[in-house]
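Hey, sorry to bother you again with one of my protein questions. I've been staring at a protein lately and its backbone has me curious. I owe you a coffee for this, so here goes:
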Amino acid sequence: MKRKKKTILGGVLAAVLLLYIGYLGYNETRAYTPPQVERVDLTEVLSQSPVTEYDVIREQTGLGRRAVDDILAAEGPAGILRFQDQYFATPTYGCHFMGVPTTKEESREDSAGQMQFAELVPLRNGDILVSLSTHTLGWRHGHSAIVVDAENGVMLEAAHIGANSVYNDVSIWGRYPAFAVLRPKGLSDADMEKAAAYARENLYDIPYRLLAGVVKSDGVTQCAHLVWSAYDHLGIDLDSDGGLFVTPADILHSDQLELVQVCGIAYPFT
């Protein structure tokens, strides 16, 4: 009888292991989602004055309306076409452990394993960065950060367990094969700066705690909680499902935000 129970238990464990391995394989297929449309020539669309077909441009470049306006003002159509090239260029990427042995992330890299970076749009203080390239034990939870000094290309992030929140070069966000840049709807640059200032003054160099926000404790955070806190201070709740635990996906799906740039993630976000 004992041998039979051990056989059954062994079979159950093997089945669970196989299912988990299969799930991990499925999870890897979600590392990058290519554009959902065929590429078209944007020359005629971009020759209009003023440009009006923002939905077409977004489908072809991953750029939201305000990013399109900023790029056109600075560079003209050539800038938009450069982002179209990037949007339709399927990246190569690797997957590596980060910080802790349970968590991995994908990063763009060439055939020699050298990290590559996608170009980010012109950013503003308070812009929100979300990636879906980070996963733990098969859960693709992603990562998030907030831009705190756009002029000098600085973001604030809570990277992983065991590390305090840090300033980092915002350009490294382009290493992810799947990322988005988001901006609060209808908020002035001055109000966005208030969120960035709150983050600089209150959310820098504090410990990472996975359950920050669930367990009420000041002076700790995690990546999505950090972004949420900066805007909660202004009375804006970015937690789209209103749960106890805010995640990057919750922020990605917030109806308080508009798209600035997306790459490698299907849009509208599902």
The two ends are 49 Å apart (CA to CA). Residues 11-27 have pLDDT under 50 and may be disordered. The chain has eight helices and nine strands.
